[in-house]
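so my prof wants the structure for this chain in the tokens format not the other one, which i didnt know existed until like an hour ago. anyway here's the sequence
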Amino acid sequence: MTYTLTDDSPLLKPFDSGVIHTPHRVFMAPLTRLRAESDGTPTDLQTEYYRQRAGAGLIITEATQSSASAGGAYMNTPGIHNDAQQAKWAEIAEAVHNEGGQIFVQTWHVGRVAHPDLPGGDPVAPSAIAADGKAHGPNGSVPLVTPRALETNEISGIVDAFRTSARRAIDAGLDGVEIHGANGYLLHQFLGDDTNQRTDEYGGSPANRARIVIEIVKAVVDEIGADKVGIRLSPGHKANGMNESDTVPVHQELLRAIADIPLAYVHFLIEPTDPVLATLRPEITVPFLLNTGFAIESDFAQLEKLVADGTADAVIVGRWYISNPDLVERLKKGAELTEPNQATFYAPGAEGYTDYPSLETQNA
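here's what i got, hopefully its the right format
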């Protein structure tokens, strides 16, 4: 596949928001790759992977555990909740900065998608409702289990974990933090009326179900500054067994509650034709990043149009950055794009991870 971005392409206009200052608007999506150590410490291989992709302008990292109990959905995902992890993230940040890039770490809690066989312990969630699906751990593929409903007095600890992991990110030299409120993980589970059956102040009405996300945004902003904070949401996304019936009201409550906070950005995973996007877009008062999914992100003409018409301020691209570390340079030159090898997305080692060539090395 080839596509050429002309010099006047809207995707090649500079982007400035908060601490983010990039020469173009084709950012790198958060992509789980399972290359960390078993204890969540990032590896030298990850340092090289992100260094190679520093030309993304803004890298949003793979989802990263906000606490020791926040993971447990997949093997070998990184964390940022202890000194060893922070030290390796500092190496990653330095490598990206030395190449002229910027990098936000995405922090998460997986909630009910965790499994006792995986690091992180027994799963917790807004309510004791199991997700359909299976976990893939040391004992093979096993069904997800019913989580324990969080006690009200435990929720402040979840909020604090997002705050303290954000502090570690900034202390490590990372440029900012993206709060993961999407894809059927814990914060999305609180937002969903199907997954949140609580009767305390964190359940029931849309405002109550949005409460924990709002508290986390405010706590992280208070800790590191709004200019270093983004949030990812996926309204209506059915990932990990989600099946919301009131997507618009709960996300309206959330977006209206944070409207006066000058975040670096709000990031949606949603198809451009989804009517939910048209309804919620006017609620967003800060720069808006749009991740359309692979089928649409392969249509660069449509991505250009989304920025040109103001639907998005920048676009988030995933799989093309996996296989083309110098994606924007290739697009500028109309060079052939390397197709990603899905068989190596979650496999260990360098194959399909750091061995995709740039144009410079390919033509050497």
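also thought this was worth mentioning. The first helix runs from residue 44 to 52.
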